[in-house]
Design a protein that fits this description.
There is one protein chain. The protein has about 80 residues and is α/β, with parallel strands linked by helices. The protein has one domain. It is built from two helices and four strands; from the N terminus they run ββαβαβ. It has helices spanning about 30-35, 45-60, and strands at about 10, 25, 40-45, 65-70. It has a four-stranded parallel beta sheet. β3 (about 40-45), α2 and β4 (about 65-70) form a beta-alpha-beta unit. The relative contact order is 0.24. The model has no long low-confidence stretch (mean pLDDT about 75).
Length: about 80
């Protein structure tokens, strides 16, 4: 049975490959919000910046996501 890969968005400078999974990169929150929802959002930015961005995402009712992962700075925000 074929399985579909998760639709993954990246904000920040995450450059690691995830095998055959394609990543869609975004420079800022506005460009991310201009496209349909993703299954996973990777945040590659300092923890304080990630926290601010997460607060903005929670307020925006037009965007929905299943999972969010912070890729660095485990400082209480991620």
């Amino acid at each position: 049975m074929p399985t579909s890969s998760p639709h993954i968005a990246v904000l920040g400078s995450f450059t690691s490959g995830l095998g055959s999974i394609e990543l869609e990169r975004f420079a800022d929150l506005d460009s991310l919000l201009a496209v349909p929802a993703f299954d996973v959002l990777l945040l590659d930015m300092p923890g304080a910046s990630a926290g601010k961005l997460l607060r903005k995402l929670r307020i925006d009712t037009s965007y929905r996501f299943s999972l969010i992962y912070c890729c660095r700075d485990l400082d209480g925000w991620c």
